[in-house]
Specification:
Blueprint lengths: L8 E3 L1 E8 L7 E7 L9 E2 L4 E2 L6 E8 L4 E8 L2 E6 L11 E7 L1
Parallel strand pairs: 1-9
Antiparallel strand pairs: 2-7, 3-6, 3-8, 4-5, 8-9
The structure holds copper (II) ion (CU).
Copper (II) ion binds next to loops.
C-alpha cells in the first residue's frame, strides 16, 4: 500500500489536500500531523496495528473514503515537516504514509 503525494513540498499558508482513494476495494483515510522533527517516530500500538493517535495532535483528517471516492482537507500550515498517513488497521505498517515539506 502507498500514499502518494504531489507535490511533495508546498509554501506555508492555507493548503487544501485533494484526497483520492484509488483503491478499487478498500476504504482508506488520511490523517495530517506536524512532526516535531523530520525524523520523529510516531507512537505505534503493535497490538492494534495502528498509530496511537491518542498520543498525537493531528491537524485534521479525511475519514472513511470509499473506494474510488475523494475528499478534501484544508489546513493552515507553518514551515516544517508533516506526516500524512492512513490509520486503518495495518495500513500504516503496510506503507500508507508520506511526508510533506512546508517551506517559508
Ligand atoms: Cu489505508
Amino acid at each position: 500500500m502507498t500514499l502518494t503525494l504531489e507535490p511533495v513540498s508546498v509554501k506555508a499558508g492555507e493548503v487544501t489536500f485533494m484526497v483520492k482513494n484509488a483503491d478499487p476495494i478498500d476504504e482508506h483515510e488520511m490523517n495530517l500531523m506536524r512532526l516535531k522533527s523530520a525524523d520523529q517516530k510516531l507512537p505505534f500500538n503493535a497490538k492494534k496495528n495502528h498509530v496511537d493517535e491518542s498520543q498525537l495532535k493531528t491537524l485534521g483528517e479525511v475519514e472513511d473514503i470509499k473506494p474510488g471516492a475523494s475528499g478534501k482537507l484544508t489546513a493552515t500550515l507553518k514551515p516544517g515537516t508533516y506526516m500524512l498517513f492512513c490509520n486503518i488497521k495495518g495500513h500504516y505498517k503496510a506503507g500508507m504514509h508520506n511526508t510533506l515539506t512546508v517551506t517559508k
